[in-house]
# Entry
Amino acid sequence: MQANYAKNHIKLTGRNFSPTKAPPIVALGNTVLTVVSYGNTEISADLPAGFTPASYQLSVTNANNRTGSLIATLGSVGAPGPQGTAGATGSAGPTGLHGPAGQAGAQGAPGQVGIAGPPGPLGPPGPNPGAIALLHWYPANLTTRFAAGEGPWGAASDGANMWVTNHGGGNSGNTVTKLRASDGALLGTFTVGLTPSAITFDGANIWVTNTGSQTITKLRASDGAVVGSFRAGTKPNAITFDGVNIWVANYGSNNLTKLQAGNGALLATIPTGGSGPVDLVWDGSCIWTANWLSNTVTKVAADGTLLLTIPGGTVPNGLAFDGANVWVTNFYSNTATKIRAGDGAMLGNYPVGVNPNGAIFDGANIWVANQNSDNVTKLRASDGAMLGTFHIGNAPAFGGFDGAHVWVVNHGSNDISKL
# Structure
């Protein structure tokens, strides 16, 4: 039995309350209660209004005159008893559905700046603006060649003109030829020392190594006048400018001559760390030499400290710097090697033509002059991919870049190609 005092109502549960589906009779003491609902196992009935709390005999009589009774104590609800001890925690139910997202909170204060990550890989080079300005959209010029002197060997640009050393000993040998870069017009031929080889520009003057007379000639770029002649080591063969000083590689004495560009004063004579240095390049902080006789490449600090000696290919010959890496041509290996300037790590070895001489960087690509295949190989500097092979004159030697065009000296045909 359940009593609901708020509604003055009781519910009885049992069996056989209505076997014939006729309503049963429910009596509380002597009072017959009003049956609200019934079934064979459950009866709901109303309590009399204003009954007195007490114990009563509660009886149910079904249609078969069968009566059952019990003593029911009815009264007001007592005060709640004390709370029992908490039962054990039940197992977790299944996760409910996600509720709607709340409103975004206010932005927090910025955190500390993290440590910079490593630099990403170098992207592909962009187009050369100088070449674009001249409508130079083609990969190479295969027709433009200009006469030089006898046995030309090296070339350098002064920004407006190309200067070519004439290594041969004939009527036009032992000279330097000045050509206007825009159209190849001959602007002058100037006498220097014996068997001039390499050449460089310091921003105002042209410097030439004279292999046969162990000297270096300084010419004023504006008019070709001789400004000075300075002693070098034995068989000076290569030359470069570091922005302040002139460096010369002496093939016969295995050392470097360092001269002050302003007045030609001798600043130092430095061992190269290899035998037969034939070319050199400045990487912004150090000098690199290609050592023909020892099959090595060496890196020398500005103060003369030997920093690295790296095995090269068979007879390392020409050098170029692409802003991050040093490129070396290997005369008898017919390859060009890419070396990371920072630590000397070899990054790649790429096939070129037969007996490569000079290497020239145009801002995006490396051009290699191949002496005995009469051509130049164009390699993409970023990954060494071969971009083309272009036939030029006979026995190409060394060359230079004028900002828009690559120039390669053709030693065997006494001319220079403008690509």
